Structures are given as C-alpha cells and as structure tokens.
Amino acid sequence: QIPSKVLEARLTGVTPGLDRVLNLTHSIHYMRLAAIQLPRFPRSELLKKVAGIQGLYRLLSERIDADVLDAPESTVSTMSVGYDHVSLEELKKTGTRLGYTPEVLTEAAAELTVALLLATSCQLLEAVDEAKVSGWGSWKPLWMCGYGLTDSTMGILGLGCIDELQQTVAMHLKPFGVRKFLYINTAPQPKMAAAIPTEFVPLEEMARCSDFITVCCMLSPGSQSICNSSMFSQMKDTTIFSNRSRGSVVNQDDLYQALASGHIAAAGLDVMVPEPLPTDHPLFKFKNCVILPHITNATWSRVVKGCYRDPPTALCKGEILTENLIIYILF
Ligand SMILES: O=CC(=O)O
Question: Which InterPro entries does the UniProt entry name for this protein (predicted)?
C-alpha cells in the first residue's frame, strides 16, 4: 500500500535551514511529491519522476545521488535508519535537507539480533527442516547440539552505531546469561559500559575472545568490509557471527571462505550484498548460515511513526542541527 496522506505533522523547535522542511510539512498536500510511491521502480523511471519535484520520499534500496538530486528538492526523506544510500556530499551541495528514521527501529533491531543469534546457535531452521522430513529418526544425544548464549562472551561491533542501538542489543542479550560483553565503537561508551557492563576492546581482541559476534554498525568508509578474512581468521571455530547492519560491512567472499573451511561455526545475516541475494548464491548452500531478507525494519512501529531529523553532525560535515521534525504517516 502507498501512504496517501500525512494526517498529522508535529514540529519541535526550529534550526537554521529547517524552514525548508517546515514548508514541506505545511504544504505537503500542495507540493508535487511525485516520487512518494514507495514500491521500487526502475532507476530510469525514478529519474523521470524526480524532475521538478520539491520533496522526495524513498526507501533504502535506492541510491540517492547526484543524478537524483539534480532537481531542486527541498527535502529528501528515507524510510530507514541507515542513510548510506544517500550521498550527503550531494545534499550539501544543493542545500537539501535529509529526513530519516532514527530510533524507530532500535528495539526491533535488538530483537532481531537476539532472534538471529538464537536461530543460529540452536540451528533452528535446520531443525525445522529435519522435523518436516522426519529427519530426526531415532534419539541421538549429540544430534543438533548447538552453542548456547549462557555463559558466553558476546562481541558487539557498533562502530558508528547510532541511537543507543549497541546498548539496547546488549540489554536484550543480558537476560540470556551472557557472561561478558565486549564492544567496539568509534570511542568508548561510558554510559553503556556502566549499564551492562561491557568492555571496550580492539577488533582483534573481540574476534579472538568472543563466542558470538554481532554487528550493528552504520555503513561508513571506516566500517566498509571491516569483517574480513583477517577478522574471521582470528575467530574461534565455535564462534557464531551475525550481521544486521549493512551487507557491505562484511567481505562476503571472506565470510563464505570462513564458513566453507569451518573456521567459524555459523552465521546469521539479515543484510547482504546484493539485496535480494540471488537464490543461487553460494551462501544459501550452508545449513549453518541463516539468511533473512532484511527484515529488521519489518515492524509496525516504523510504519506508523517516522521521526525525521538530520543525520548526526559529524556526517553532515559540520552542520549544526538540534531539533527534530516528527511526521506521523498513516497508511
Ligand atoms: O536497515 C534498516 C534501516 O536502515 O532502516
């Protein structure tokens, strides 16, 4: 379904430059929002549709770059927490504001992280398949044995992580009896360290010492392919790896090798390259690789409530942004 109406627009505070966004919400019914339809359409069609529009509302599956931003949009919004598909450089050049949906997914993302870790550690999908084909046969004490979260060491890679996601993930995993949390971020996170507690470590140490590694970072030049052969080679052969951030954070060929050689125990992926992953992709052949079709954002909370604000200052290259614009969109 296509969101057809903005029923309520609530504004909190004003920042320099926010006037363009204000204009958008006040007159949203009158503006030409030609590209508001969410279903994906071919790039050529998108480029045709953006000509002469003032607002663009799209999904994370589309690259919003110079070609798209050629038209003088007042604002671009993406229905996603990540905005790695949007060229911030180009936005700055044209003075275009960016809306995205921070915080909306924090809980859902943490829940999916738990689901991925349990699905891989308990070999849930494989077990379901076996049950369907009567694969369990007679009782075998070692069959389908997995590694539990209880007493484990959990590494959380949250480099550039936003909106306390890293802490929320740890909070969700704590009740499972995780013994120790290790984390990586751009800087130590004292609030999280105190709340969990958790230890700030270098990547190598996290790779070496963790029983589980879960990735929840933003895609940035610093995190691109950070999970590569060097990291996988330091992991234990009992370690389970999971990623629900962005596919490009992982070197997928290296992950394939790590699974094929038995260098790691299993992987759970909600994101990959490309998306959708072709059904004949070699990763699908592993029983110990759980692949989900990027469903972190499949939660009603994100559909009915979008919190639009500008990306963090650092990524916005010095632009000072303080307040939020909140738009409720009902389908
Ligand atoms: O991955 C989901 C999102 O960025 O919203």
Answer: D-isomer_2-hydroxyacid_DH, D-isomer_DH_NAD-bd, NAD(P)-bd_dom_sf
